């Protein structure tokens, strides 16, 4: 593409020849001639002085660029995101097709949807426009999916929830789950995730939620708008997760937990009580405010020295 055409798509100021052709994007570790390279720091500009490329940089770096070929933008991360779609060579896979799926009765599919191999849509599924379901995705009965949703390979939406009770003989018996799953607009779900349908009411994934690979969301969970969930998170039944939460990898959240809006939960934390205020929380032991946990963690590392000191004092 001409650099002038790229600049229009990302609203960039051009330094250099607008007729220059760009073949793609390359990284700082493996820079290539004729490409765009994202630079975040002044030192990167100096390191790449010998490469015949265009820099993608933010306004504050313009004074360091001098006459070097560049695209100057307000937000380099946003611009880079757009560029990854422009130069994505995998987005027209021959294995994706608007008809390549198995479907049940009364299935509704909107415009511009793409499906990988072995996608299954069960009875009464409703899918909006511009939805992409990759290989081996299963959408169980009655699930509702909004517009502009991407679901990666092997994910199951609407699976049976883990609801059981134990009788007087200590034998387990299962509750059938009669609810559905509803997914809003602009949602992204990774590979091999499981989102269970509700027991009676629906499991709900609201607009703008992004979910990494290998995430389990149990029955009746509600995920607030624009929340991000990293890999291997497990959220037990009937939790209500606030808007704009960021949940780190391998976090475990027990059932019936509520979190406020704008909560950050550090990776590997266990959440066993409600989080009612925005903030950054961490906890391998009972979860607490992040700054308190850092203080406790420092004290734990000094326990051995403290014990030796106390023994010496007794003597």
Structure commentary:
The protein folds into 2 domains: 84 residues, Udp-n-acetylmuramoylalanyl-d-glutamate--2,6- Diaminopimelate Ligase, Chain: A, domain 1 (3-Layer(aba) Sandwich), CATH 3.40.1390.10; 140 residues, Hexapeptide repeat proteins (UDP N-Acetylglucosamine Acyltransferase, domain 1, 3 Solenoid). The protein has a 10-stranded mixed beta sheet, with helices on one face. The chain contains 6 helices and 32 strands. 31% of the residues are buried. Strand 3, helix 3 and strand 4 form a beta-alpha-beta unit. It is flat. The protein is of the alpha/beta class.
In short:
The protein has six helices and 32 strands.
- Mean of residue pLDDT values: 91
Task: Note the gap between the termini.
Answer: 79 Å
Give a quick account of the main beta sheet: strands, pairing sense, barrel closure.
10 strands, mixed
- Stretches where pLDDT falls below 50 for ≥5 residues? none
What is the chains' assembly state?
single chain
